[in-house]
Design brief:
mainly alpha, Four Helix Bundle (Hemerythrin (Met), subunit A), rod-shaped
């Protein structure tokens, strides 16, 4: 039972509560619908004549052609940028490789002379101690750079360069990979001969069997160095004939 002395709590009419709820809902939903979206569509006017129909179709077709044209234009510009960047990077890398190859050619020629002297020593009748001391086997060759070429093949930009312009560059990179077994065989000949000489220096003698092994390995290394020098000289010419400066 309510105390008559307590102030009465006014009750809001039901209509007022409903109105307040609707207003709150509208306030909450306003931010969600405040942003308008761009909606492109054909006009909805009723079509009553063939003329209106063809105008309607022509409008759609022209709009599609413009959209496709813009897309192709953007793609064309993007491809030109990729091709230009690939050209510049590969050309710079080729210039670097031409210098590196010439250094390798000079080194191989020096190695050939050293190997030929080793053969003369092995064929001579000089004392073992003198022969062992004079024999020298070493190699120092630098690997070619291929980061720009590999990147262009990976992202597909190399396909955007005409084949006639990239032909000689492709020969250089592909032949360099194909020549890898010859390089490794040459290195193996030199390192094996060097190991035999180190063993002979430890024992202080050069047996007939070791002398024959050194002759075989040295002759093989001379032949491989000649092959490498010949291929490298062709690669240098191919690089110098390649011009991929961005157009």
């Amino acid at each position: 039972m309510a105390d008559p002395d307590d102030p009465a709590i006014p009750q809001a009419p039901a209509d007022d509560q409903t109105s307040t709820s609707i207003t709150d809902a509208e306030a909450l939903s306003t931010p969600e619908t405040s942003e308008t979206m761009l909606d492109v569509h054909a006009p909805h006017e009723p079509i009553h004549t063939w003329k209106s129909f063809f105008i309607h179709i022509a409008t759609i077709v022209i709009g599609l052609l413009i959209a496709v044209g813009l897309e192709q234009t953007v793609e064309y510009v993007h491809h030109r940028h990729l091709a230009s960047e690939a050209r510049a990077n590969i050309q710079q890398e080729l210039i670097q490789n031409a210098s590196l190859l010439q250094q390798n050619i000079d080194r191989l020629r020096a190695d050939q002379q050293s190997l030929e002297k080793n053969l003369e020593l092995l064929d001579a009748s000089t004392p073992d101690a003198q022969t062992i001391r004079a024999l020298q086997y070493s190699w120092v060759l630098r690997r070619f750079a291929d980061a720009a070429w590999t990147a262009a093949r990976t992202d597909g930009s190399i396909a955007l360069i005409p084949s006639k312009e990239i032909r000689l560059a492709n020969y250089f990179y592909s032949s360099s990979i194909e020549m890898s077994p010859v390089y490794y065989a040459y290195f193996t000949d030199i390192d094996t001969a060097s190991a035999i000489v180190d063993h002979c220096r430890t024992t202080g003698k050069l047996t007939p069997s070791e002398r024959d092994q050194l002759r075989t390995l040295t002759t093989s290394a001379v032949g491989r160095s000649r092959i490498l020098s010949f291929i490298l000289s062709i690669q240098v010419r191919a690089i110098k004939q390649t011009n991929l400066d961005p157009k």
